[in-house]
Design goal:
There is one protein chain. By secondary structure, the protein is α+β, with helices and mostly antiparallel strands. It has 1 helix and 2 strands, in the order ββα. It has a two-stranded antiparallel sheet. Strand 1 and strand 2 form a beta hairpin. The longest helix is centred in the middle third of the chain and has 7 residues. The protein is globular, with a radius of gyration of 12 Å.
Length: 43
Amino acid sequence: MLTKTVKIGKSGNGLWFRIPAEIVRARNIKPGDEVEFAQIGEN
C-alpha cells in the first residue's frame, strides 16, 4: 500500500487536497476519474 501525507487547502467554502504524482502514476488516475477515499485511524 502506498501512503502519503498531504496538506488540505481551502477554496471558497470547500476544501481540497492534491494527489501526489506517485499515487497518480501507480493508480493511473486521470482528470475526470472518480476516486474514493476512506479515513484510516483517528486523524
